[in-house]
Amino acid sequence: MAMTGVLRPGHAQLRVLDLEESVQWYTDVMGLVPMGRDQQGRAYFKTRAERDHNSVVLRQADQAGIDFFAFKVLDKATLEDFDRKLQAYGVKTERIPAGELLETGERVRFKIPTGHTIELYAEKTDVGNGIGYQDPDVDVLDGPGIRPIRMDHCLLYGGDIDGNVKLFTEVLGFTLVERVKLEDGKTDLAVWLTCSAKAHDIAMVRHGEDGKLHHVSFQMPSWESVLRAADIMSVNRVSIDIGPTRHGITQGTTIYFFDPSGNRLETFCGGYDHYPDMHPITWSWEHVGRGIFYHDRKLNDAFLSVVT
Amino acid sequence: MAMTGVLRPGHAQLRVLDLEESVQWYTDVMGLVPMGRDQQGRAYFKTRAERDHNSVVLRQADQAGIDFFAFKVLDKATLEDFDRKLQAYGVKTERIPAGELLETGERVRFKIPTGHTIELYAEKTDVGNGIGYQDPDVDVLDGPGIRPIRMDHCLLYGGDIDGNVKLFTEVLGFTLVERVKLEDGKTDLAVWLTCSAKAHDIAMVRHGEDGKLHHVSFQMPSWESVLRAADIMSVNRVSIDIGPTRHGITQGTTIYFFDPSGNRLETFCGGYDHYPDMHPITWSWEHVGRGIFYHDRKLNDAFLSVVT
Amino acid sequence: MAMTGVLRPGHAQLRVLDLEESVQWYTDVMGLVPMGRDQQGRAYFKTRAERDHNSVVLRQADQAGIDFFAFKVLDKATLEDFDRKLQAYGVKTERIPAGELLETGERVRFKIPTGHTIELYAEKTDVGNGIGYQDPDVDVLDGPGIRPIRMDHCLLYGGDIDGNVKLFTEVLGFTLVERVKLEDGKTDLAVWLTCSAKAHDIAMVRHGEDGKLHHVSFQMPSWESVLRAADIMSVNRVSIDIGPTRHGITQGTTIYFFDPSGNRLETFCGGYDHYPDMHPITWSWEHVGRGIFYHDRKLNDAFLSVVT
Amino acid sequence: MAMTGVLRPGHAQLRVLDLEESVQWYTDVMGLVPMGRDQQGRAYFKTRAERDHNSVVLRQADQAGIDFFAFKVLDKATLEDFDRKLQAYGVKTERIPAGELLETGERVRFKIPTGHTIELYAEKTDVGNGIGYQDPDVDVLDGPGIRPIRMDHCLLYGGDIDGNVKLFTEVLGFTLVERVKLEDGKTDLAVWLTCSAKAHDIAMVRHGEDGKLHHVSFQMPSWESVLRAADIMSVNRVSIDIGPTRHGITQGTTIYFFDPSGNRLETFCGGYDHYPDMHPITWSWEHVGRGIFYHDRKLNDAFLSVVT
Question: For residue D9, is the peptide bond before it cis, meaning its omega torsion is within 30 degrees of 0?
């Protein structure tokens, strides 16, 4: 098949400091659909347009951050195959039984060189996007909240991003889309990788501390909807890091902002298509400011330092 | 790898009645980049954002229509593999030597059940999109013409679309995204198929005559750029079939219009992402009008009858 | 003062065949704010962004159409002044007492040469647009319905539009913005007039029958919101006359559609600014199709014939 | 008439440090149309959509800033009338003969309490906007540069803005649209005034030094064109102060940036209609950050300090 192996980002489990406040915020401000809670008390969400049961899982904790980020793979055989390949590559994997996350099949969990926990799974209940599979109408915007299209990708911070790139490209079939070099012109400061034809399904920045989250990103349908997202943030006094603006890297438009626990989120739109036959784009240290924030053309202090 | 096999539509060779007039029109009105001519006199074009050497090839002929539509595959080994699989499936293939099309590698050519000629190839020279692979800027709209992002897909008309679907899904790894049923509720009138995560890389409508072209489609970056395309068409007195409007099927926004030879083209934007784990959408005959043209909610006469 | 005399369209009273159905429709589909009913049973509406109490008044009747269209003038002295000028010009005026329409001051009512009833008034209660006059937030789109910015203008059909133009320009201070000539190159088929710096505050088309309504128009904030309006119409199976498309005249983008009683409404965006020192634009009969519908470049049958 | 007196901002004469560099920049980056030079060497520009001969005049000087800002009035009688009223009010006026500025009639020049030079004039040659007054087409974006619709307004800095407000409202017929109060809740820090139905035709901020320019502003047709403007600025390494973002005041979207001489310019879109019967909006000191920059919700250092 043309799309095989790892299909797309599937779910992210985030730690929040006050679950009830966060449930309210992800519902009312982000405009996500609450999909219930499990016995551990975790709260589940999906976007309206997503068909699978959940994509964002919130867990109450003392410290914000990301517990794990998961990718859906084509089918169960693919899942077994990846488990074998990961082990053969020297990565220790763990099986999380079906149902441990609501409406989600068995997961293969493993740690990547930057210390983050990644999961693969093949099954999550298709609950639909509300317009059905027969003679559907358009799902017109008709309520409050930012209402992104999908949970799209994340940007992780940690030490050994070279190890990550090797693992994601050689074992998981990802392709390098863009990279930023440090002042030495050789070492990668940051990389953007895709498992499909998007500009990014995951990205990583080299950082002193392992296991850190820079942001989880949500796709918006248009630059105008990015403006509406910024307006909603201001009406709700949400802390905005930067934006609306454009990235040079991926060329998508963007807002970075923070959930009530300090986890950075992104609403973005656009970004070019990237296929595995395409040449990656490289940014030199001299141009990294313009690469990250195309209009300001300089990094803000927060970009390289504030993570959860 | 995650994206393997057939990657994307690569080139379409169209027949035009007056080559010089057409070259002018595809350059000035469509805003495509002329990429030279070959010894046969064929004229080559790409969009500005496309990196490979060409995506539209024009050939002077007495009758408009499409000579062939081609898909780029991952690499040469994949090309060989598809040739073997096609032959094993009972499809006769032909090898077109590298260079027969400018800057294009060897092609595997075959006829599909609806009588259209399809090609696969693995190599086409990367000439870049003008912004480079090192510290690029944004390619801002700064000149005349519609300037689509990419040659995106085509819609073919012919008799045995069931045979096409079987071939594209079983041999070429495509996935069914949407379908329209005839009044009997069983027979497919039309199908939309993808080889990636787009809403369509090719589509087919059941039709009395084989080998016909309904339209070749070009992707636009925004609904506002679709409006600009319509304005450009009117300034240039281009014949518009319908639009700007929205499709119910794929939910993309669209204009159908005709090149000077009567070949229907489309400029479209949007359409949801479709992955191979997703359920296809089915349209009943009763709702086909809304499916094709979401706002008019009825087919215009031309949609089912005017083809080249 | 710079803006004096007639300020802007203020309210339109429309006849509807089924009041309850219409109230539901203007609330849910148009997204207007219901502002109560009066003792005669008339239903009042305003857009969210309008500050004055009402702009659309619905009256149950056996036949659809418009009872009257009103303009707000600067103040009571201006109202008195216009009454005197109208009478001096030979127009018979009538005083409608304050309160006859909810929250609306005294109105000066008169018939124009095409048989339509026009009103002037100076006072309507400022109920605000919900964001207040102190440190306001943006009123973000957060609910169902088309939600236009304002009731913007109307297009009336009748015989003596020359008489109308003379009255509106010589007595009421309007300016001619655009005109369409009949085949003789002399007679006006249609005229667009402004009392401010908009492309139109009222328009008229020459027609065999007096007192007819072509459409009442509502302003939208963007071309993207025009698309959303069209989607909402289709989700609600509203009868769409034409659009989304662009007018050559005024260059605004537009949808014409019908309320449940058959009154044509318009949602439009854009149109250039026109000041009284500017030259009007003239359209010849040969180009009228492109003038009315810039992309189709021909009139549809309904434009010249279907009125209420 | 409905629109009388002062119609709109007409021209701004800016001082630039290097005329040739500036002519290039206003042509290529701003996308203004060069309209020739006069005997003093001043360079003239208009936007493509403006019909009058010029709206921006550049003069080489040792220090950046604004020489004068002018408003077009309805006609010569109005000009005479304003001259009389200004003198009666105690403002000394000066007559600048027709032709002193290219294609511009006689001007009435005077100083306002904040030390800025303001001009009124009734005549400037209508050179048209290139699409003509007979059967026009749409002027589709087909070249480089930001290409605003019009020179729209300016924001001036100086001491006695109370005196300015009194002069503009009592003599020139302007209306107060929005105001920001200082911490005392009484003194105006800033005011926005209109002579038409726009959210602002001129604005002023209280400042220690008289005669200063904060910015001259150009209207853009859409939020998407504001993004394109920001992209063009970055491609050309133009210094961007802030944006793209939204103002709380007027609710328009905006970018502030600097010409090569350090004069701040703005490209903005939107802003609500304001008529003279409408209540002004007041911002308290506590909310001024959100009022100026709706998304950042704080003033940047430059806003209150950097002027030319």
Answer: no
Task: State the burial class of residue D157 (Cβ atoms within 10 Å of its Cβ: 0-12, 13-18, 19+).
Answer: buried
DSSP structural state of residue B280: P
What are the residue boundaries of the structural domains of chain B, listed by start?
A: 6-121, 150-304
d(CA A228, CA A244): 10
| pLDDT band, residue C55 (cuts 50/70/90) | very high
CATH topology of C6-121 equal to that of C150-304?
A: yes
H/E run at residue A21: helix A19-28
Bridge partners (DSSP) listed for residue D71: D9, D120
Q: Please, which chains are in contact with B (at least 3 CB pairs closer than 8 A)?
A: A, C, D
Which of B11, B200, B207, B274 is catalytic? The answer is B200
Contact residues, C window 118-147, toward B, CB-based 8 Å cutoff: none
> What's the pLDDT tens digit per position in D183-219?
999 999 999 999 999 999 999 999 999 999 999 999 9
Q: Which CATH number fits domain B6-121: 3.10.180.10, 3.90.76.10, 3.30.70.120, 1.10.10.10?
A: 3.10.180.10
Q: Which amino acid is at C21?
A: E
Strand pairing class (A264-269; D253-258): unpaired
Closest chain B C-alpha to D280 CA, distance in angstroms = 33
Residue whose C-alpha is closest to residue D56's, from D18, D15, D94: D15
Q: Which residues of A touch B1 (CB under 8 A)?
A: 4-5, 173, 175, 276
Hunting for tokens 């679309």 — which residue is that?
B161
Rg (CA), chain B: 18
Q: Residue by residue, what is the 3-state secondary structure of C150-203?
A: EEEEEEEEECCHHHHHHHHHHCCCCEEEEEEECCCCCCEEEEEEECCCCCCCEE
The residue-averaged pLDDT of A110-138 equals 98
Please provide the average confidence, as pLDDT, over all residues in chain B: 97
As beta bridge partners, residue D9 has D71
Q: Do C294 and B231 touch (CB under 8 A)?
A: yes
The residue count for chain A:
308
Residues B135 and A291: beta-carbon distance below 8 Å: yes
Rounded-to-integer distance, Cα A225 and Cα A268, Å: 9
Task: Report d(CA C45, CA A165) in Å as an integer.
Answer: 59
Q: Calculate mean pLDDT across residues D142-157.
A: 97
Query: What ipTM was reported for this prediction?
Result: 0.96
pLDDT digits (tens, 9 = 90+) for A55-79: 999 999 999 999 999 999 999 999 9
**Which pLDDT score, from 0 to 100, does residue A262 have?**
97
pLDDT of residue D2: 77
Q: What percent of chain C has pLDDT over 90?
A: 96
Distances (CA, A) of B53 to B105, C217, C225: 11, 48, 38
Active site residues of C: 153, 200, 215, 247, 256, 266
**Domain B150-304 classified CATH 3.30.70.3450?**
no
Residues in chain C: 308
Q: Cβ(B51)–Cβ(B38) under 8 Å? A: no
pLDDT at position A126 over 80: yes
Give buried/exposed letters for B185-207 (b at 16+ CB in 10 A, else e): eeebbbbbbbbbbbbbbbbbbbb
Q: What is the pLDDT of residues C190-244, one digit of tens each?
A: 999 999 999 999 999 999 999 999 999 999 999 999 999 999 999 999 999 999 9
Owner of token pair 């001082």? D15
Please, where are the H alpha helices in A155-282?
161-170, 223-235
Please name which of C141, C136, C133 lies closest in space to residue C222, comparing C-alpha atoms: C141
The pTM of the full predicted model, rounded to 2 decimals, is 0.98
Instruction: Say if residue A221 is preceded by a cis peptide, omega within 30 of 0.
Output: no
Query: Peptide bond before B244: cis, by omega within 30 degrees of 0?
Result: yes
Rg, C-alpha atoms of chain C: 18
